[in-house]
Amino acid sequence: RTMDWQIEAMKRVWAGEHVTASVRPVGPPPVQPGGPPLLVGTMGPKTLRSAAAWADGLAGVSMDLDLGAVGALFDVARSAWAEAATCRWE
After folding, report:
1. How far apart are alpha carbons 59 and 5 in whole angstroms?
2. Long-range contacts at 74-83 (CB < 8 A, ≥ 24 apart)
3. Has this prediction a pTM greater than 0.70?
């Protein structure tokens, strides 16, 4: 789960943590506390469910503009984000 590790590393960088042996921190710090919102651009339910654990939202889902398919994928997104939010608080 490389993406999960990369997202965690970026969040640590944005929090001002030292993630390397370097003496200098990475900067400048983000404008928003905790860093910018992370949006996922995916076209499949499996990757969408996986991204719900770390992404803040969805940014585009269809190459062919099939409204039915887009609606179905947004249903998956709503469900995945609701489940991820529940898991974080249990």
Report:
1. 21
2. 76/45, 76/48, 76/49, 77/48, 77/52, 80/48, 80/49, 80/51, 80/52, 81/52, 83/52
3. no
- Which position has the token pair 């905790």? 34
Number of CB atoms found within 10 A of residue 50's CB: 18
Q: How many residues does this entry show for the chain?
A: 90
The torsion angles phi and psi of 6, rounded to 5 degrees, stand at -65, -40
Q: What single DSSP character describes residue 26?
A: P
For 18-68, the pLDDT digits (tens) are: 777 776 777 788 888 888 888 888 777 888 888 888 888 888 666 777 888
